[in-house]
Amino acid sequence: MTMNPFAALVENGPVLVDAEHKAWFSACLHNAAQTPRLDELMADQGDGFWYASDDWRAPYRPYVVKEGILHIPVKGILLNNFGWQMGNWATGYDYIWRAFERGLDDPEVKGIALMVHSPGGLVAGNQVLVDKMSERRGEKPLRGFAQESACSAAYNIIAVAPHVNVSPTGTVGSIGVYTMHLDWSAANDRFGVKVTYISAGEGKVDGNPDEPLSERALSRMQARVDDLYSIFVASVSRNRSELTEEAIRKDLGAFTYSAAEAVSNGLADSIGSHDDALSAFAGSLDDPSNQDEGEREMSTPDNSAVDQAAHEKAIADAATTAAAAMQARIGGILQHEEAKGREELANHFAFATDMSVEAAAAALATAPRKVEAPQAQQTQAEATNHLDAAMSNIDQPNIDAGGSGNDRQANPDDASADLALAKQFGLRGFVQA
User: Fold this and answer.
1) Where is this region: Disordered (predicted)?
2) How far is it, in rounded angstroms, from Cα 106 to Cα 84?
């Protein structure tokens, strides 16, 4: 049994997570578990949801209003029955709803901003949250800001906003479902372990990790995946009304898309830096002509060719600046002293998050270093090659539902990468969607 409370929340339960961000998801589980006084937070069942600003628990339930805009962070892994927000690592559906509800009822709040950077989260609770938010989204101006990634469960949430802005280097989408079954039977055989399940009721132990997946278990898992996919597609189509369910299934699939692609295919409405997009939102709140949130703003304004050219140049300049900053940040993380012996985690922080060099170094310092065997001294180039090879074997699900966006096929004879990752974070047989 895992000792990580966040891993326990997702163990053996379905999740809506982009397959390419599996390492990021696991890092979120690990780092959220390092939260100070975590046991007290997890045990808190008090009736008073919002704490006084001087209470030590207040930062874990932030309620931040700037220029009349309530900022709701939707970051890290997204959890059901969880009323806390833990920086970049974990956010509870209960917290998101309570903040959204409070903002709608707060006379000081003119508009609400969903600040999203997440690979996704649990299936349980996600659709309930999205449905409740959808019912009330017309009460005040609402915008979604993909501060890099808004994938899978996170995209379902950000799609509630009538207008979605994506940062120049951001990605959105992953509207699809897949599940994964881990088969430990070969490893059990190698270690001389024999597991016998004693059960009552047909199908009770179907899909257990200690034996190969049966055709019956496979069929039932596929049916469940198909049902979840239909719900997900219908939800996005409802909230992004110009996207039909057929278009989502046939044209978009479950791929993730860059900012420019997302604006072109209807998953997003504009591209811009975080600060500029927020400033534009704040300005629109004082303009009565922009108060009709029933009409979606599109990224391409109906202006002259000169204005459009200036708009495109501004986007290109922003992208160039962002790319230079990103290159410097990536190099700083990968070459940092704390990255030695933690190359895989450093690679994740560099390429799959927007963490600063300082924040990544601090997080890396909490993780154990890999110890090289004396007989296996490696050059830096050899270590990089081994890291690339290991990363290329990650995220190989053995069940694909309705265009999951992962074109790679699992190698049934090589589950070492998944087994190692699962062992590192204490996960057993969890299911991803």
Assistant:
1) 279-305, 394-417
2) 20
